[in-house]
Amino acid sequence: MAAAQSPHVLTISWGVIEVEGLGTLKDAKLHPGGGRAWDWAETGTRHSPGVQPAEVEELVRHGATVVVLSRGMDLRLGVPAETVAWLEERGVVVHVLETREAVRVYNELAGSTPVGALLHSTC
To answer: Where would one find coiled-coil regions in this protein (predicted)?
Structure first.
């Protein structure tokens, strides 16, 4: 049985991410088999300190072996070392990138790798 593929990002621009099968979102939480809007309020995420381990747990639960974390278009979203360490301790490969580059890397992997992503479409 083939593993579920991660949805491709169709377009990215300031404040808008269009995702295959999910429509238009401001921020996206994507994983093998689907995704949804990324609601920062769920875990209290803020630009600083940034993406917390609680935000990436869902991606790993859905089977992501690679996770792409975007820092925003202007690199204002932090990614603490503890979040990267949490993923690496579970054998997950981590990419921390500016949003447009994060989308490029994520889309390259989406067709062949169980990849997840947190994509922030503004600052």
So the answer is: none
